[in-house]
Specification:
Blueprint: E1 3-6, E2 11-12, E3 14-15, E4 23-25, E5 29-35, E6 63-69, E7 77-87, E8 90-95, E9 110-115, E10 121-125, E11 130-133, E12 137-143, E13 151-152, E14 156-157, E15 160-162, E16 173-177, E17 183-191, E18 208-217, E19 227-230, E20 240-247, H1 250-269, H2 273-283, E21 285-290, E22 297-304
Parallel strand pairs: 1-5, 4-6
Antiparallel strand pairs: 2-6, 3-13, 5-18, 6-17, 7-16, 7-18, 8-9, 10-11, 12-15, 12-17, 14-15, 16-19, 19-20, 20-22, 21-22
Helix pairs in contact: 1-2
Length: about 300
């Protein structure tokens, strides 16, 4: 099986179906990406909070790619298997002017530099015993939208983008709806750890090296927004299947997440729509995966696979 590579310099700052692919691959092949952090290298391990006041915001959240996947056509689904992901030895979290769920309550910038060299965790405050488990993932994974023209990399979309979903770690599978020939997949915005929501507007931002397998799927027409399967959620080793709702209205995005899960349950498990709705109510978990990158929210409906008798 061929393994392809995309360099740090092979990146772009908008989702746009007119961008020339940096590589072309066959369905089922593997690609290795080397990605700068979301600041595009503007923050370093030696930076201070003052560095945040001089950030060039138009250069933030670059993504590496795009990758053209042969035989991917509008209406198909791109399956993204996250095979490997590793971080740099350091990362950063910042409070930026105008960003975050409580942006109106924080007028001053703040910056924390994290040491990521410990095995599996980083200290928030060693003296107080507060440490953060490291679960690295890419905040940005997406394909080009069918709508022409450039689209900002800051928010999430139905085709992915800045989905900032902490569950998309090594071993997970992401499903994205294909809207243009070749899919045009890109990735970036490495995180060492994040809580659901990413409420202050940044996670532990870091450079990453990621390896993914890209496969064209022809029989998942119900995938209209990002879906994912994660086999290793803490507390449920059999994992979850998650559907999402994406949009500027958090209530409607939540309704869409539930509707999309109902479609999966009807298609894959033969349930009626009424049965699917009740199952979502008694077993599904709604999560606010991403609530700070306007104008869109990303809401997830997570269904535990253990209720279907899946084996580990």
């Amino acid at each position: 099986m061929s393994i392809h590579s995309v360099k740090r310099s092979q990146c772009h700052l908008a989702w746009d179906n007119s961008i020339t692919p940096v590589i072309r691959i066959k369905s089922g092949e593997t690609v290795h990406f080397d990605c700068l952090d979301a600041s595009n290298g503007q923050i370093t391990a030696a930076s201070s909070a003052a560095s945040l006041t001089t950030l060039v915001f138009s250069a933030l959240d670059q993504v590496n790619g795009p990758v053209y996947v042969e035989n991917a056509l509008p209406g198909d689904t791109l399956q993204v298997d996250v095979l490997e992901i590793s971080t740099a030895e350091w990362g950063w979290t910042g409070i930026l002017n105008g960003f975050g769920l409580l942006a109106d309550e924080f007028s001053d910038v703040a910056l924390r530099i994290w040491d990521l060299r410990e095995d599996g965790f980083t200290w928030f405050d060693k003296e107080k015993g507060i440490k953060i488990p490291l679960r690295p993932f890419a905040g940005e994974m997406g394909v080009a939208p069918g709508d022409d023209g450039p689209h900002s990399t800051i928010p999430p979309y139905r085709t992915g983008g800045n989905i900032d979903t902490k569950h998309l770690t090594k071993g997970t599978t992401l499903y994205l709806p294909v809207e243009v020939e070749g899919a045009l997949f890109s990735i970036g915005d490495g995180h060492a750890a994040q809580g659901d929501g990413e409420v202050c507007g940044t996670a532990i931002e870091t450079m990453i090296k990621a390896t993914v397998k890209l496969t064209v799927i022809k029989d998942k027409s119900y995938v209209k927004t990002p879906h994912f399967f994660t086999p290793h959620v803490p507390g449920d080793p059999q994992g979850y299947y998650c559907t999402t709702g994406v949009g500027p209205d958090v209530h409607e995005a939540t309704r869409d997440a539930v509707r999309h899960m109902m479609e999966v349950l009807c298609a894959d498990y033969g349930l009626t729509r009424e049965e699917a709705y009740m199952l979502c109510s008694v077993a599904g978990d709604l999560r606010m995966h991403e609530v700070v990158d306007m104008p869109n929210f990303l809401i997830g409906m997570m269904m535990p696979r253990s209720i279907f008798g899946h084996k580990e």
